[in-house]
C-alpha cells in the first residue's frame, strides 16, 4: 500500500493487540445484544414450527453467550458496554427486509434461514478471530470460553442448513 493510501487512525484507535481484542469483544457483545432483539421477530414470522422452535432456542443460547461475554469482560477488568456493530446492524436490516418482501410461508422461511445463516457466519468469523487473539495474548481461560461460543454458532449454522435442505427450500421451490 502506498503511503498516500494509508488511512490515518482516529486518536482513540487501538495501539496494541490487547486493545484491539477488547474493542472486538465490545463489537460482538453489541452484536449479540442486537440479535436478542431481532430473533423473536424472526421466530414469530417463521411458518415452519421446527424453524420457529430453533430460533426460540437460539434466543436462550444467545442469552448465555452474552452472559459469557460479560464474564470475559469481568476477567479482563473491562466494561461490557458494547461498541456499535455496523455489520450486525446491516445483517439485521437485511433480515427485516426479507420479512417485508416475502409472503408468510416456505419462501419467507427460506429467507429467514438465509438471513440467520449470514448472521451465524459473521459470528463464526468474529469468534474465530477472538479465540486466536485470546490465545496469542495468553488468555487461555478466555479462549476456552470463546471456543464454547464458537462451537454453539457452528452448531446453529448446521441446524439452519439441515432445516433448509431437509424441507424448507424444497417447499419454497414448490411455491414457484
From TrEMBL:
Q: Which Pfam families match?
A: DUF892
Q: Which organism is it from?
A: Candidatus Chryseobacterium massiliense
Protein name per the record: Ferritin-like domain-containing protein
Q: What is the lineage of its organism?
A: Bacteria, Pseudomonadati, Bacteroidota, Flavobacteriia, Flavobacteriales
Task: Enumerate the SUPFAM superfamilies for this protein.
Answer: Ferritin-like
State the InterPro entries in the record.
Answer: DUF892_YciF-like, Ferritin-like, Ferritin-like_SF, YciF
Amino acid at each position: 500500500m502506498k503511503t498516500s493510501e494509508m488511512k490515518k487512525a482516529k486518536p482513540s484507535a487501538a495501539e496494541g493487540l490487547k486493545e484491539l481484542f477488547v474493542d472486538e469483544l465490545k463489537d460482538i457483545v453489541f452484536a449479540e445484544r442486537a440479535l436478542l432483539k431481532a430473533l423473536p421477530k424472526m421466530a414469530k414470522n417463521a411458518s415452519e414450527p421446527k424453524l420457529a422452535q430453533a430460533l426460540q432456542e437460539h434466543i436462550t443460547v444467545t442469552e448465555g453467550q452474552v452472559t459469557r461475554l460479560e464474564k470475559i469482560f469481568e476477567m479482563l477488568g473491562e466494561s461490557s458496554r458494547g461498541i456499535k456493530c455496523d455489520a450486525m446492524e446491516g445483517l439485521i436490516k437485511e433480515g427485516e427486509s426479507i420479512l417485508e418482501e416475502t409472503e408468510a410461508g416456505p419462501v419467507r422461511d427460506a429467507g429467514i434461514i438465509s438471513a440467520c445463516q449470514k448472521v451465524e457466519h459473521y459470528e463464526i468469523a468474529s469468534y474465530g478471530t477472538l479465540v486466536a487473539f485470546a490465545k496469542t495474548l495468553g488468555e487461555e481461560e478466555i479462549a476456552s470460553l470463546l471456543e464454547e461460543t464458537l462451537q454453539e454458532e457452528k452448531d446453529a449454522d448446521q441446524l439452519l442448513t439441515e432445516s433448509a435442505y431437509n424441507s424448507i427450500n424444497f417447499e419454497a421451490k414448490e411455491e414457484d
